[in-house]
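User: Predict the structure for this protein chain, please.
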Amino acid sequence: MKKIVIGSDHGGFRLKEKLKVYLRRKGFAIKDVGTYSEESCDYPLYAFRVAKEVSTGRYRQGIVICKSGIGTAIVANKLPRVRASLCYNVKAAIATRRHNDSNVLSLGSQFVSGKKAKAIVAAWLSTEFEGGRHARRLKIIQDIERKVSGCRK
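Assistant: Here is the predicted structure, written as structure tokens:
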């Protein structure tokens, strides 16, 4: 079974709940790391939880959501082996998978409707990494990451 980890702050909670229904219908097992209500909370905690699952290899892909998507992408990208991409449209979602092999999708609930978010997620999940010249660039990114973080993989 396909699996994915997802998390949001209070601003992304409603969109997260819509996407969970959508993903289950698409056959995904979902790990929801919170938040579990619209009560005010701090997005870095939830973005970190998602990114940690991807960084450690427990999950191959994750989705983070806040109002803008910016903060969650910043936090997720702090962890080794995470390539989080903020996408507001399908074209960006396809490009980030093809060219960057992104493994965390960041969404901004104030910029994408439920319908648009589903289309972005569908494109992101169904697009494969192209390799080729992009593999060379991805290796450069990974080399930089190793230099900065001391990571071996």
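Helices lie at 13-25, 43-55, 70-76, 90-100, 114-126, 133-149.
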